Amino acid sequence: MSLLPRIFGPMPFARLSHMHALSAAADAFFTVSLAGSLFFNVSIGAARPRVLAYLAVTLAPFVLLAPLVGPLIDRFGGARRVVAAVTCLGRGILCLFVAGDLRNVLLYPEAFGVLVLDKAYSVTKSALVPSLVGDDADLVGANSRLARISTLAGLVGGGLAVGILNLSDATPVLRVASIVYFAAAVAALAIPHDPPARLPAAALEREELQSPKIRFAAGAMAVLRAAIGFLVFVVAFALKRTNEPTWFFGTIAALSVAGGLAGTVVSPVLRRRTRRDEPVLTVALLTAALVSIGGALTNSPRVSVGAAVFIVAAAASMGRQGFDSILQRDAPAAARGRSFARFETVFQLTWVLGALSGVALQLNTRSGLAILGVVFVVTLVAYLVGTGRHRHRPEARRDP
After folding, report:
1. What average pLDDT does this structure show over 304-333?
2. pLDDT tens-digit profile of 330-344?
3. 157 in the same domain as 207
4. Which domain holds residue 21?
5. Which residue from 89, 100, 142, 303 has the least number of CB within 10 angstroms?
């Protein structure tokens, strides 16, 4: 197999991969262009309100996602590639407006529009995956591939954006972002047509989305997302209080990215060996629990923090691949947009709540890891008991 199919996957899935790589790179350009002194250049007291404002901004787009954007995506269920193209095109156009409004109040609604379209794109992308994958057993591998592509494309795009920003200012970075978004829109139109499916009755849709496998998987994933938010801010403020050098902050950030990538590599291997999606979440929770408890008992703060960040990031990545595959497998085909929108909203809310807990409690890393370890153990037991009761029930089949 040549290099490109190894990276992007076989056709027709590779068409989706091409679009996603361009979208992720453009997202990195946009993020770098708006990056400011949120945390590092201010005191702890000044950083806290800025962090709270940031958390509010990250949650705001989800106010529209579940009630409006998800159903809208399903309304065009047979043309989701067109919806994906529109979200890329819209972000590209808004980036051009942002480039001209960096110093006035119009920046904020325009940036908000980019965030809303980005979430709509993410939901559409996830809804497209099952129609491009021949077998349910390949869903974890497909989701993992997209996650790896997103991370690597984001790193490349972010690096180029930082270079342009250092040579000039944010305006050319945003203009390049718009060009890359436009290229992603063109790539989206090359994705094969998504066969339309009939929307199930509301009662049946609720019943399928409340199935034990989806419900317990969503609960496990929500805890993993909350743990990421909690750990990020516990570690960040703890390191700032102890005046750790900048290079250590960079190391922790690199370990987080590496952990996410490791999760995308381990998930499909685990899925192939167990032949089920649910064990991916089980292993993610177990690994995170063991490392968190071990980190709380370790006398070397740097080692324990580094290991915990890497493993919890890997566990969250594994959990995400497992959950997405379960939802893609069991949710009604015609309601995938609203299904992903609903759970994305829940997960973002739990991430924000976890982050707020980390900001408010101001724990040291040992106490924070001890709390996470207990939470992971309780969640693991609940997940094993809940899924064990329904393990031998037949799985739902995807709608044609």
Report:
1. 89
2. 877 666 777 888 888
3. no
4. 3-189
5. 303
